[in-house]
Design goal:
5 helices; mainly alpha; disordered N terminus
Length: 163
Amino acid sequence: MKRSALGWLVVVVLAGALVAPALAQAPQQSSTTNMEILAQKLKADKKLLVAQTVGVTDEEGKAFWPIYDAYQADLQKINARAKATIEGYAKDYNAGTMTDAKASALTNEAIAVEEALVALKKTYVAKLAGVIPATKIARYIQVENKVRAQINYELAAAIPFVK
């Protein structure tokens, strides 16, 4: 599947939104404001990407889009947990204060975030059943998985190994 320009934009902005603040030692106010603006644009662009890829009809959309919006709100909570985990790691990494106890807690929280994401997907797949056909549910989850995979790739490339 070819990656569209919009797809790359989504990935770059999401990865930047998670990584840049965590690894920066002194974020500036204007950078935060710019990231908030980019995050809002990203949400709109992602919705467009989902609409184009999933192919929800107008009739299906009446029930699908509220569920989509609720999923995105719940996903944002999980993303906030992931961001906090990365920021905590960055703080210890930059200060050279990583301990076995902190590394263990970091590992446990990273796994808990992944488990929360899987549980969220299961919950929303069940909510979408009967709202849109199973093929469209699968396509929607594929979009979410592809975006998440690219974000995880970018995060893995940007975050150094524990010392």
